[in-house]
Automatic annotation (TrEMBL):
<feature type="domain" description="Tetrapyrrole biosynthesis uroporphyrinogen III synthase">
    <location>
        <begin position="22"/>
        <end position="235"/>
    </location>
</feature>
<protein>
    <submittedName>
        <fullName>Uroporphyrinogen-III synthase</fullName>
        <ecNumber>4.2.1.75</ecNumber>
    </submittedName>
</protein>
<dbReference type="GO" id="GO:0004852">
    <property type="term" value="F:uroporphyrinogen-III synthase activity"/>
</dbReference>
<dbReference type="InterPro" id="IPR039793">
    <property type="entry name" value="UROS/Hem4"/>
</dbReference>
<dbReference type="InterPro" id="IPR036108">
    <property type="entry name" value="4pyrrol_syn_uPrphyn_synt_sf"/>
</dbReference>
<dbReference type="InterPro" id="IPR003754">
    <property type="entry name" value="4pyrrol_synth_uPrphyn_synth"/>
</dbReference>
<keyword id="KW-0456">Lyase</keyword>
<dbReference type="Pfam" id="PF02602">
    <property type="entry name" value="HEM4"/>
</dbReference>
Amino acid sequence: MKVKKVLVSQPKPTSEKSPYYEIAEKYGVEIEFRPFIKVEGLSAKEFRQSRISIPDFTAIIFTARTAVDHFFRLCEEMRYAVPDTMKYFCTTEAIANYLQKYIVYRKRKIFFVNTGKLDDLLPYLLKHNKERYLYAVSNVHKEDLNILDHNNINYTKAVMYRTVSNDFGPDEPFDYDMLLFFSPSGIDSLLKNFPKFKQDEIKIGCFGTTTAQAVRNAGLRLDMEAPSVKAPSMTAALDLFLKEDAQNN
């Protein structure tokens, strides 16, 4: 069966130069963007139930821009003015730069790496081992915290937002030939929305090993996986898959 309609379980790209649009035109396929999951922030009341007091901390660890948004949102809701002395440790430069939305960047102590990995932040965390770290996360986070525990980093994990299923409406069509997923939560949402889902000829592609495992654990067939040597990104993998699909049909 030739793939004619693809569902990308992510928000629609903000740029018209997205590779997805080029792929759609190149192969004559329709690509729709529709997240299977969405993020909800905890209310100040819910956060207080964790008995975590933000003023007790001298530094914050951020591994996502979403965490930045919800940290400052909660601080505003709780009427807490983040002091200029607060230190920020980020797993990418993009997250560090995003802090400018809330603080005067040049006046703050900000540390970052470019790998996106918590492990690579360790040298900075150890250098500032007197700090009391607040680690802002969602209720579903993939980072392995053993690296912090094994190195006696004084940190507290604080759930500030949650990932929930973005339910399909009863009249919302589901007529796709291919589904692309980026997290295990997306697979959970698929099965929640369609408990009697039968894959049949529908192709499934995913990004990341944990998402791939979630596909298999759900008893579904994985037709495309990224990243790989030939396809380091989801769009590169989709390009290759559609090329082969066109040749075989």
